[in-house]
Design brief:
Largest sheet: none
Distance between the termini: 131 Å
Number of helices: 11
GO cellular component, one term: small-subunit processome
Number of strands: 0
GO molecular function: RNA binding
Protein name: Suppressor of forked domain-containing protein
CATH topology of the largest domain: Serine Threonine Protein Phosphatase 5, Tetratricopeptide repeat
CATH class of the largest domain: Mainly Alpha
CATH architecture of the largest domain: Alpha Horseshoe
InterPro entries: Rrp5, TPR-like_helical_dom_sf
């Protein structure tokens, strides 16, 4: 007889039946499944954060593109943004890639909606500036004629006249003045614009002669306003 055995030690421990074991295993499996779901959610959140970071960088590159690929993505998302297209043109010009710059300008004109006249005129102006600086007389004339066919004539003439006078080309300025006045001699604004361009190129005498022609061509009601504005030009230049 074992005297050192306690009564409770003589009680046989309960044995779990198979059903209890199955329940325990099921609970363990569920715990594993819950853990797996949590891990999956964590992984999904991490991937989502990574995607957002990529999107943020892409959006940043669209706002301030620095490469051809970035410009191409940017113009896809903002196809009617003339200022963006002009920056793309300038990007190629800075690299002296004249043909690529010209191609981008043409691409812009094919892309920007025909109803957006102001945006399209910006691109036409950029193309005319490009041809004035890097093109030939033939390419400039061709682009100017095309711009006149596809836009308001006075707007195009005004832009071209400014391009010539800003680049100090008196001969081209004077030739364009004569061409403009054959088309738009009934416009007081056109006469003043031409006088201003001639004055800017240092052709003050020709501008004064043009003023006399304007007075002869325009109705008397326009004379006072014309003379006042010409006097301002004299003071300016």
């Amino acid at each position: 007889f074992l005297w050192d055995v306690k009564p409770e030690d003589l009680v046989k421990p309960e044995e779990k039946d198979e059903e209890d074991i199955d329940e325990d295993e099921e609970e363990a499996d569920q715990g594993k499944k819950k853990k797996t779901v949590a891990e999956r959610r964590k992984s999904a959140k991490e991937k989502e954060a990574q995607l957002r970071e990529v999107e943020r960088k892409l959006m940043g590159s669209e706002d301030n593109p620095q490469t051809v690929d970035q410009y191409e993505r940017a113009v896809l998302t903002r196809p009617d943004d003339a200022d963006l297209w002009i920056r793309y043109i300038s990007y190629h010009l800075q690299a002296t890639e004249i043909e690529k710059a010209r191609a981008v300008a043409r691409q812009a004109l094919q892309t920007i909606g025909v109803s957006l006249a102001a945006e399209r005129l910006k691109v036409w102006t950029a193309l005319l500036s490009l041809e004035n600086l890097f093109g030939t007389q033939e390419s400039l004339k061709s682009s100017l004629d095309e711009a006149l066919r596809n836009n308001d004539e006075f707007s195009v003439y005004s832009k071209m006249l400014k391009i010539f006078s800003d680049s100090n080309k008196p001969l081209e300025t004077e030739q364009l003045v004569q061409r403009m006045l054959r088309k738009l001699k009934g416009s007081p604004e056109c006469w003043l614009l031409c006088c201003s361009a001639l004055m800017k190129c240092g052709l003050a005498d020709k501008a004064r002669n043009l003023l006399h022609r304007a007075i002869a061509a325009l109705p008397a009601r326009e004379h006072v306003n014309l003379l006042c504005k010409f006097a301002l030009l004299e003071n300016q230049y």
